């Protein structure tokens, strides 16, 4: 990104829940070396939004919030669609014990957020402020 405090992520998958999962894991791997990470606990949260692109932002913001407040990051996650959003089951690890390899995201930028649903996949481009 032209701005040194931005990270741009592109993710895609055959399903909405899959592309959100891919975006979250890419975000985490941009700043933590997850090679030795083991899940320590499961965290279940319901994330709601009116639109699919807002849902992506809300899930990413939840990950940033948990990292900031609990020092935890997801090793993996599963999303289950519900009427007004998704139930996110994250397998969490202590992020403070892992090597940091990049700048930690502070927020999700709504600037130039791109979301599309094609015939065979769902795609997004999202920018994180680091």
Helices and strands in order:
Layout: E1 6-13, H1 16-29, E2 41-48, H2 52-70, E3 72-82, E4 85-94, E5 107-117, E6 122-129
Antiparallel strand pairs: 1-6, 2-4, 3-4, 5-6
Low-confidence segments, given as residue ranges, are none
Q: What characterizes the major β-sheet?
A: 3 strands, antiparallel
**CATH architecture label:** 3-Layer(bab) Sandwich
The CATH class is: Alpha Beta
Amount of helix: 25-40%
**Helix segment tally:** 2
Tell me the β content: 35-45%
> Compute the gyration radius: what is it?
14 Å
Structural class: alpha+beta
CATH 4th-level superfamily = Archease domain
Distance between the termini: 11 Å
Summarize model confidence as the mean pLDDT: 93
Whole-number total of structural domains? 1
- Write out the strand line-up for the largest beta sheet, numbering strands in chain order: 1-6-5
- How would you spell out the order of helices and strands? EHEHEEEE
Count of β-strands: 6
- Shape, please? globular
CATH topology tier name: Archease, Possible Chaperone, Chain: A, domain 1
Word description of this protein:
- This protein has helices at residues 16-29, 52-70; strands at residues 6-13, 41-48, 72-82, 85-94, 107-117, 122-129.
- The chain is of the alpha+beta class and 130 residues long.
- It has one domain (6-129): Archease, Possible Chaperone, Chain: A, domain 1 (3-Layer(bab) Sandwich).
- The model has no long low-confidence stretch (mean pLDDT 93).
């Amino acid at each position: 990104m032209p701005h040194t405090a931005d990270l741009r992520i592109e993710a895609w998958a055959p399903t909405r829940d899959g592309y959100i999962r891919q975006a979250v894991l890419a975000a985490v791997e941009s700043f933590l070396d997850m090679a030795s990470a083991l899940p320590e606990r499961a965290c279940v949260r319901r994330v709601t939004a009116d639109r699919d692109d807002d849902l992506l932002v809300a899930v990413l913001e939840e990950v940033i919030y948990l990292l900031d407040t609990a020092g935890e990051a997801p090793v993996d996650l599963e999303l289950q669609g519900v009427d007004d959003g998704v139930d996110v089951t994250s397998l969490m690890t202590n992020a403070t014990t892992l090597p940091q390899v990049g700048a930690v995201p502070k927020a999700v930028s709504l600037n130039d957020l791109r979301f599309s649903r094609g015939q065979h996949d769902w795609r997004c481009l999202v920018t994180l402020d680091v």
